[in-house]
Design a protein that fits this description.
2 copies of one chain form a homodimer. Chain A is 45% helix and 16% strand. Chain A is an alpha/beta fold. In chain A, strand 11 and strand 12 form a beta hairpin. In chain A, helix 6 crosses helix 7. The interface between A and B is large, with 57 and 58 residues.
Chain lengths: 350, 350
Amino acid sequence: VSDDTVSPAAPMRIAIDVMGGDKGAKIVTQGALQAARESRAHYLLVGDPNVIKPELAASGLRNVEIISATQVIEMTDQPTVAYKKKPDASVVVGAKLVKDKRADALVTIGNTGAAMAVSLLTWGRIKGIDRPAIATPLPSLKGTVVLLDAGATPDCDPNNLYEFALMGSIYTEKVLGVAKPAVGLLSNGEESSKGNELVKRAHALFTQQQEERPFHFFGNVEGGDVYRGAVDVVVCDGFTGNVFLKTSEGVAEMILRSLRDSLAEKKLLAPFVLPLKPTLHNLRKKIDYAERGGAPLLGLNGICIIGHGKSDAYAVQNACRAAERAVASDIVSIIRDRVCEAPAPPPPPI
Amino acid sequence: VSDDTVSPAAPMRIAIDVMGGDKGAKIVTQGALQAARESRAHYLLVGDPNVIKPELAASGLRNVEIISATQVIEMTDQPTVAYKKKPDASVVVGAKLVKDKRADALVTIGNTGAAMAVSLLTWGRIKGIDRPAIATPLPSLKGTVVLLDAGATPDCDPNNLYEFALMGSIYTEKVLGVAKPAVGLLSNGEESSKGNELVKRAHALFTQQQEERPFHFFGNVEGGDVYRGAVDVVVCDGFTGNVFLKTSEGVAEMILRSLRDSLAEKKLLAPFVLPLKPTLHNLRKKIDYAERGGAPLLGLNGICIIGHGKSDAYAVQNACRAAERAVASDIVSIIRDRVCEAPAPPPPPI
């Protein structure tokens, strides 16, 4: 275990796969360089040197190194197949840097399926964790709430949700600095009788363990509770979590577009709208994924931060910061230790 | 079957359970009276006469009748138990009016669990439909999209989703007047390979039936596609659908509250905000459930429209209108006939 801890003397090393994201490698490179500029960490930019070199030269930064990778896993590739067929893909090279202890964390943008498959196959799971989970930070009226799983494990059993609750709680406490995070179980009603079969069984498992449960269980929550900030962590299977995220983005997009369109429609109102621009900008910023950094993939023997596919340079920079925070808090070792300490959950009730 | 059709000469009869809803019986009564005032239908107001009488007297309406019901199924009651123990509950009395052909549809506000249990137990399922579904109309950038199931059947198999697709398609065509509605399957990605086990198997079932499929299958959709208006109908299990709805409401509430708060914060901007009020009001109206009427419970031998728990009088009125449209289009008979005609779906692939 001590091998994984970073000596305070040596700077941490963040590998970033610059070849992902909807906006292209140049934008990801620029985001990584912005992060490097404001950090004492050493940055390893993995990808096509022809893209990275000119940006790096212009930046004049010295804490950045280029790691050449000639292949790219495309969104259309089957991730596990691509892992074998494209050994020099940027995300594979980045994951190997972490495995070989040449980097402390990997940041990758957009292709969640590839990030997951490659990280899992390269690093393996933490002993005692059955399935990984993506922990996505979301805005709420009270600050930030962490949702997991956002898509790593679409089909779950109650034990998976139990492990997600434990990992999410540790991440929120140690990396985001929330004392004794409240964990909610996403359901179709707040009453303990509500839920599909999975959630009902998970609820029974969570409450059965009341005495020795290694996280603070709040109870069932609905989508509205999440956005009102009733809990710090919300747990669900990866299918439901992914629907939750994309639905939220869809609603926000519809509302902001409708608002913009109806303001644009009434040209007479233009002089009134202008002074409101900063307010509208702040609102957009508040609900924008970019502000909250990337989402860590939890449960593996390595740190992978997955940035949103739509990330601009600023969002990439924030994903890099999330990686630095995760390394600084030594999250993998803590999860590993706490999973060993935590009593195994009882067999799920039938 | 001909027994169920309404003669064009006789006015249709809408039964409304006035005892539901967060805002109380008086508000529901007022909404029902507003609906009756603008309609040639006969309205049967079921509930406590002491609440209904003064409102009815003040309205001077003649197409309204009071049906006394002395009991109420509370949100805390177990619906199937309450059905037996409270035979004079307003929702039970209303459902019986429909069963006895004294009413053509039932409208009830708020308590979805009770509405579902009582309707199912009183009317039974349409032959060939295995599970009922709640079809909720949602706003999209292009108009209205119908989501089902919004909570009637939390755990589904692929055949259930197939039946939801068929019923949702019929409802959207016959009641909402959309020609050849496009049906999407809610998933965690647009590719056919995406989904949890249920969605993958449902997708295989839907596409396998391409030749004879009695609805227009668009493919998998994500939450963003739904709100962009990519499809007219979106199908999912009742747990996911309920999470979808409540998450959407939660996001909308958070955004509108943040907008209001940040405008209120900057008092200097007040003179600029005033002229924008109608625009903001329209936006709220656009995303407001109240505008789109209640949600029909499909798959049973009777029409039940479930209004949102937060319904004000205007929303109740719109739920009553939805009931009138459903009766006018004879939706139960059409579903019954189309289910008989439609070839049974092939056994789901393993």
